[in-house]
Write a structure and sequence with these properties.
Blueprint: E1 10-17, H1 22-36, E2 45-52, E3 66-68, H2 76-89, E4 94-100, E5 105-106, H3 110-120, E6 124-131, E7 153-157, H4 158-164, H5 176-186, E8 190-200, H6 210-213
Parallel strand pairs: 1-2, 1-4, 2-3, 6-8
Antiparallel strand pairs: 4-7, 5-8, 6-7
Length: 214
């Protein structure tokens, strides 16, 4: 008799930190708690998995299960997320992995809205809509179809991870999400924006970072 597939009941959130200020993580955790509270009617819960690529992060008490992986040096965004995805999807109930930038905040309806959207489009990478600034790219307002998705708040279903793996470890930072989107589309998946899933991520007021610009 063939083994029955496990019904996914868990959403794993992955956070890669690099010298993230404690106040930033406190703000993020508060938003995660409020958003996770909205998942029960969907028969789903949430867990957090994180890895430090810089100094050890000072996390506040997290209201959902939180697993911290041992540091492995500065792996970059994609490399760090790959370690987190492998850890998360090793847990059979996990059906989805959400990349989350530590400098953002989740709207209280974000997680539930992403899963509702994923139920309609199970073969899609799904990007949350960022505010107050959106990326200057187009997407269909009805279907959400777009050419590529930002990794700042990106839902990756298990079936896509099993089909194409994670990000390219050779891309240390920036454009790994564009590459991943094109690989997903090349494998027959689609890429979408969920317009009602809101992720607060202000980038226009950032001071220049010489380490990033170098």
């Amino acid at each position: 008799m063939a083994a029955q597939a496990t019904t996914p009941t868990r959403l794993a959130l992955g956070v890669v930190t690099y010298n993230s200020p404690p106040a930033q993580l406190q703000r993020l955790v508060r938003s995660i708690g409020m958003a996770a509270d909205r998942l029960a009617p969907l028969g789903c819960d949430a867990a957090l998995v994180s890895i430090d690529c810089g100094d050890p992060a000072v996390w506040p008490a997290v209201p959902i299960p939180h697993r911290r992986l041992s540091p492995q040096g500065n792996l970059g965004f994609g490399g760090g997320m790959n370690r987190l995805m492998a850890e998360a999807f090793a847990d059979d109930p996990v059906g989805w992995f959400l990349c989350v930038n530590p400098d953002g905040v989740l709207h209280r309806d974000l997680l539930a809205e992403l899963l509702r959207f994923a139920a309609r489009y199970p073969d899609s990478l799904i990007e949350a809509r960022q505010f107050p600034e959106e990326y200057p790219k187009s997407y269909d307002p009805a279907s959400g179809l777009t050419l590529w998705a930002s990794g700042a708040c990106l839902l990756i279903p298990r079936r896509i991870w099993e089909g194409i793996g994670g990000f390219d470890d050779n891309i240390f930072m920036f454009m790994e999400d564009v590459d991943y989107s094109w690989r997903a589309r090349g494998a027959g998946f689609t890429v979408r924006v969920a317009p009602r899933a809101l992720f607060g991520h202000s980038v226009l007021d950032r001071a220049p970072d010489l380490q990033i610009e170098a």
